[in-house]
Amino acid sequence: MVRDQEAIKRDIEKHRDALASNIDQLSVRMSPKRLADDAKTTAKNTFDEPKVKYPVIAVVVLIVLLLLRKLLR
């Protein structure tokens, strides 16, 4: 079955537009600023959980106490 040139051109243009749209969507999703914001939000939400927050605070306090002990000796 032979297609005419206009049908082929329309088909190519349709696929080109779809590809451009997909590339635009990917560039928005994968922008460094958005990825950094998503990582920051994820880290903040993880740290706000009590099962993570309190052990981290305990470790920081322990490190500060050990540093003070070392400095005062």
What would you say this structure looks like, in words?
The protein is mainly α. The chain folds into 2 domains: 1-30; 32-73. 88% of the residues lie in helices and 0% in strands. The protein contains 3 helices and no strands. The protein has helices at 5-29, 32-47, 50-72. It is rod-shaped. The relative contact order is 0.05. The mean pLDDT is 92. It holds the Pfam family DUF3618. Keywords: Membrane, Transmembrane, Transmembrane helix. InterPro entries: DUF3618 (IPR022062). This is DUF3618 domain-containing protein. The chain crosses the membrane at residues 54-72.
Q: Describe the main β-sheet briefly.
A: none
Radius of gyration: 28 Å
Count structural domains.
2
How helix-rich are the residues, as a percent range?
over 70%
Shape: rod-shaped
How many helical stretches? 3
* Terminal Cα span: 91 Å
Protein structure class: mainly alpha
Please provide the ordered H/E string of secondary-structure elements.
Answer: HHH
Mean pLDDT: 92
